[in-house]
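In keeping with the milestone schedule agreed at the kick-off meeting, the structural modelling team has produced records for the first pair of proteins. Each record is given below as a sequence line and a structure-token line. The laboratory manager (R.T.) confirmed that both were archived under the project's standard naming scheme.
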Amino acid sequence: MSISKTYQPKEAEDKWYSYWLKHKFFRSVPDEREPYTIVIPPPNVTGVLHMGHMLNNTIQDVLIRRARMKGKNACWVPGTDHASIATEAKVVAMLKERGINKKDLSREEFLKYAWEWKEKYGGIILEQLKKLGASCDWDRTRFTMDDDLSEAVIDTFIHLHKKGWIYRGVRMVNWDPQGKTAVSDEEVIRKEVNQKLYYIKYAVAGERGADGESQKSTSDFGLQTSDFLTIATTRPETIMADTAICINPNDERYKHLHGKKAIIPLINREIPIILDDYVEMDFGTGCLKVTPAHDLNDYNLGIKHNLPVIDILNDDGTLNEKAEILIGEDRFAARKKIAVLLENAHQLAKVEDYKSQIGFSERTDAVIEPKLSMQWFCKMEEMAKPALDYVLKGDIKLIPDKFVNTYKHWMENVHDWTISRQLWWGQQIPAWYLSDGQYVIAKNVDEALELAKGKTQNSKLTTTDLKQEEDVVDTWFSSWLWPISVFDGFKDPNNDDINYYYPTNDLVTAPEILFFWVARMIMAGHEFRGELPFRNVYLTGIVRDKLGRKMSKSLGNSPDPLNLIEEYGADGVRVGMLLSSPAGNDLMFDEEHCKQGRNFWNKVWNAFSLVKGWKVDDNLENPNKIASEWFKSRFSQALTEIEDDFAQYRLSEALMATYKLVWDDFCAWYLEMIKPAYKHPIDRETYTQTIKLFEDILKILHPFIPFITEELWHDEVFGKRGEMDCCIVAQLPKIEQINAHLLEDVEIVKQVVTDIRNTRNSKQISPKEALALSIKVNSKISYSQYEPIIRKMGNINEFNIVDEKVNGAVSFMVSKDEFYIPLTGNIDTAAETERLTKEKEYLLGFLKSVDAKLGNERFMNNAKPEIIDNELKKKADAETKLKIIEDNLDSLAN
């Protein structure tokens, strides 16, 4: 086939992606090859493609395409996560638009609507990933609520409950009032927010007059008189839930209050003043209101001092009847109203601006409410130990390794996992309750009934006597099984897929889920398979805008990835994402990166068009042997660097090395070295070698820019390709012998050509005007063998090797060698003298700094020999250049 004159990204992307799918290039089944496996971090079924997905999946696709081209059996398993909280919120919103309230539906009716929503919207993000070029094995697409995967969740729950690692109890949890569910610690995002600090006056019982007015005046707000305690709080709306005031027993200011009681403002309920050294005397006013139902630390104090617990908040964050006042008000509206009521009652001493960290729900962005709740928990301490060992011993590598300490801290301070969620969308907890509150854990109601009969010794029980737990398990309780469950490792623990593909190779994900997904998968792998689930974890950075802000819909600073693909082509966007995304470091995204990516694929296209347009003469001798040999060595040298970058997971550096090889070495130098004169043919040998080199370039480019490389791969200049002979499965080139001496020489030759061109620019000489070049050789390089390259690329018509300097010529120095270009016509002597004088002054200053260093006894005694040698070399080079400049100045003066 013959390609068109201009590259049309959308047309090529649609064509080749369809072709790859049709011919099942992404499909993987176990065979005799070495497997290379990646499981996708399943995006939420509610999601659409954003810049974080773009980065994450581009990296995965580069790795999987490269493995495929290395002859491995590459398997990239795609799928989506059912995202309990987010999806339920979407479904509730959809029902609201239809005039339906969730409360009016049965669980079965609601789930019917939820599946309807999932079928309509759940696959959008996977279809969008195809636009990016993601070469997943789509036949293996899984969903965390597929029947088999849900069954694995239930089996896991039962297994861990039998071991005593899952239990039920009342504990303080993170409550999401918008989602109306508990969330785990890891699903709480801490943000610094501007708040108010309210100083509230609590009267001391027995210290008030009959009219209720204070018998004494208060002092300044930081200290308290005998009849009032001033307490600072950011949450005045919770004072109705106070059950004590706590002071430090050693605080001399409050010794007289030991054993007394205080009165809660507005509701006038007496509460004890308790003593505990938990209170810091020099923090705030040294007094603490204790609200066990609405603060974890207060809850712990309450247990210690046997305090009652008064929960004044409903599940939706409104005040309930226990609050006594403002019943039904939202907690934040109540906060403002309480402040007004306190001020009117002369019980608000002052209000200050205050900054503090507040927890927000990761899923709904609602402010988290600490809440006592009956929940299901999973013990983590025992499972955390082997999961930590895998990382500390290096069996699992975190990339970059700076995250090892973070991981270690988390795992050594692990808390039990709140695994129940007060939702309907998800795997329903397999617990069945009897009327007396006892429960049994079973896979289904029939098994539950048999267990219940045995537990109660009541053979007359029926299924109607059992009621299944309403809650579902946390979404992460399904996704922590992902590397095993996608291969049916629970349903059939010894099947061909799990035995072949597991453990997987690389996991690419974000650092913020290192603990509550990555660590838990490691725990599950050890618990259920007795081995690690993957070997390497590549942790991407956060995609930020050029101002450093995290991209988000609320800020409006996140471009639509599909619009970027439309504008710059998928290949351009992939390059743009990767050029500035080293592992673990945030990516400062700028659309200019995509433009650079587009320019790159355009450069490749134009280079190919240039080569394809050359006419070939079979009778011509090959004058380009040196150029061909040089680029072969340069290609292998770059390939060595690229291979090392990939081995170290430096994908950004691997792309940059490839980019420079193609743009600089191949396009700017090699093609210019061999390019025939205008309307002249090229010899057959050079042309054939160049086509072969271009084919190898397409191979190393393919993982990064798959579409344009596949398009070019099938051009007729490469010969007839078979139906399955595609770039996507071409074998990557092998590193061949590297001629280091040739590479060093050509770098010098390139500098010579560059300096010739710079001389033309500084003297305003046309590139079309041929120049004479004389070389005084002081090194071992044989310039005569590079004469054709220098003549061609520098437009030199007279090439001389001389023993002495050439007077009346512009000179420059490369390495140790001196180069002279006699200039025809008038030279602006004054301008040239000024330029050389400035250069002389710079070199004198440079030599002064080098001499100072070499004359420093401390430096000479402590510096490594190679550093001293380098300084001596700098001095010698500068002295040689200075001599040439002084000679040129003498020539101009004469």
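The second protein of the pair:
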Amino acid sequence: MNVVIVESPAKAKTINKYLGSDYLVLASYGHVRDLPPKDGSVRPDEDFDMSWTVDAKSQKRLNEIAKAVKESDRLILATDPDREGEAISWHVLQVLRDKKALKDKPVERVVFNAITKTAILEAMANPRAIDEPLVDAYLARRALDYLVGFTLSPVLWRKLPGARSAGRVQSVALRLICDRESEIERFVTQEYWSILANLTTANGDAVQARLTEFDGKKIGRLDIGGEEEATAIRTMLESAAFKVASVESKPTKRNPYAPFTTSTLQQEASRKLGFAAARTMQVAQRLYEGANLGGETVGLITYMRTDGVQIAGEAIASARSVIGREFGDNYVPEKPRHYSSKAKNAQEAHEAIRPTDLSRLPKDMRRFLDDDQARLYELIWKRTIASQMQSATIERTTVEIEASAGGREAALRATGSVIRFDGFLALYQEGRDDEEDEESRRLPPMSADEILTRQEIEKAIEANQHFTEPPPRFTEATLVKKMEELGIGRPSTYASTLQTLRDRDYVALDKKRLIPDDKGRLVTAFLESFFNRYVEYDFTADLEEKLDKISANELNWKDVLRDFWKNFSGAVDEIKDLRVAQVIDALNEILAAHIFPDRGDGSNPRVCPVCSNGQLSLKIGRYGSFVGCSNYPECRYTRQLGSNGEEDGASDGPTVLGQDPETGLDVTLRTGRFGPYVQLGEEAKPKRASLPKGWSAQAMDLEKALRLLSLPREVGLHPETGKPISAGIGRYGPFVLHDGTYANLDNVDEVFEVGINRAVDALAQKAAKSGRGRATPAALKELGEHPDLGGAITVRDGRYGPYVNHGKINATLPRDTDPQSVTMEQAVELIAAKAEKSGKKPAAKKTAAKKPAAKKTTKTAATKKPAAKKSTSASKAKTKAKAETENE
């Protein structure tokens, strides 16, 4: 017997079918050991010795694996083909050696990029040893992350109360988001005007041209700065004669995009499907582990954590075949396309993400998949096929136009493009984070010296006012792209890094844009002030490159740790005696534009608006950070961060947003102790709703307020239980609720639009993640009331097969018993036997037993007097929580 170890039970089940009875495939359920979250898990003074711990669940699985290995002939480690997968194999091997389960049994390591029979059997035929340099790179990364987190976080807690944690990659990603927000705040809007001429060709075709030159001066995008100048130019053009000076057409080719890597998949799934990075990886994991296709579970895509852009030769041949069949031979390029990998470490540059069998068309797979899986599979399939298609041929045309009137001259330009052959664009075009430019327009035929006339419309010559806009906030897609460009993080870390920032309340999502919370901005400002080197982009990227060199066996992992720790520990020692007042002074300076925004009247934004002689400063309290007056307690002026005291109602009181159309009551925006909130009416206990993370008081209107006040919102009835599912926003963010079970949603917007399918899926994922298993299965058959004890008896289908249920007793049906043929008599016998065996007493009928039950309850209540005290404490906590929610 050969024992094979993989990560997940789904993979284990599928692979066992491929390998046959000579193999026993067991799952480790991911990592089996981890560094305990306490000081001393990594010890620099002991040459970076590391302590590992095994939790109870992993211990049980490891015992089962050890027992199986002792009775086997060979151990095969078949975990994922990346750094984390190599580490899991190494951990399992270390534990088995400690348990002395191996003795002299051979140990082999196999890797496969897809869960298909061919890939599995080929991997089994080509085993190797554990890749020690890859494990060393994992150990170095874990040690670095631990040392940064467990050294910096306590410093944050002492010097910046309310901050939760810092991390090697996490803090740099947060800095990117915060730096972009600071850039937006510093941005000064500039007015500019554009001049457009709507003209007609000799054939009557319309063409629009933009001014590029006036009176011999080149006109750039921002060169016309005021209405007076724009009006003068428009007046001249309204009487001008127009003539085509030149027409230039250039054929160009647009090549297809490379197949997906982890980061490009996350970016494109965000743009086209609206998936968060974590959701993309969860759906991709299910596609990788496989779907049931006609009775056989088959992996549908290759491994989804990769830097590589190349695909296997057989996949290229298959793609070319599909292209010829589905689109025609003219869409198949003369030679196969090959893409070069951008990965810095060839050992980890695996094959790109692609379907395992490209002949499985998305339309044929849809019936085997849920909606998310089907959409992501289609995206991956299209990208892979398009990568091997013919280039698109595009003709770009530029028309230069002369205009003259009264001795003055101007030049205009019209640009456009025509697709002569669509090539890969017939199937796929990458999503964009910005709008298409004007070159995507098609121009009518024109020739040199052709006379053009103004269109007979009211504004043949347009003078349009514009204002420059600040750079956009990052989306998850653009942040991942930026991190990849800078070399920060790796494919397996992007999703978890973004999720950590949201879990820590450092950032919030609003309309898919990442907005830093005040807490996140304070942490970033603190690190920039006192640990600047360790949140620098180049420093973090250089460290990633060193980790790649470790895995390539070019650097010793402990040498890298020694160099890092020497400087890092010294930097921490330097600020041990730093006073909180010094920290606040530094934050006041670095976050001045955010903490003390310009009031617009020329006054000093740091002067207290109440007492007029106090200085405003950042204050840090038990409920978070705020701005307060230096004359406290004589002056008790306070306000939220990032406001000037007027927009959020701190000075002027409630702001009326409008009236509720149903009740006619005023809907107001207010600011309380815990931030801005909206309120309906002025009753003794009016309905209130706090503004969720990422929603600013300045952007609130009546529509948004009414949406908040309408929560919680009923989504529908659960298809299995028939009980209602609702959506709302709570202390820990947006959620769906069903029968006492909460499941988080990706963002606030989902609360208002989530449908029943998405809600049920979120609840199922939460149940699986929390270890509570699946929801109670729906009844296959209802037999009626128990003849002796009362209470319904049903037949259900469970994880280990069909069973009969009565109250808390579940009795498995004998093998080969048809659930639909079970009778009441059989069910009663099975329940009685199970009750006797387990020692459980079947639920009695609730008849005459009511009085004793009441006595027992009374007696119990009388004997547990301390419980009343506990109840009082709970009541106080509940009242406090309610006060926080209501912002009083």
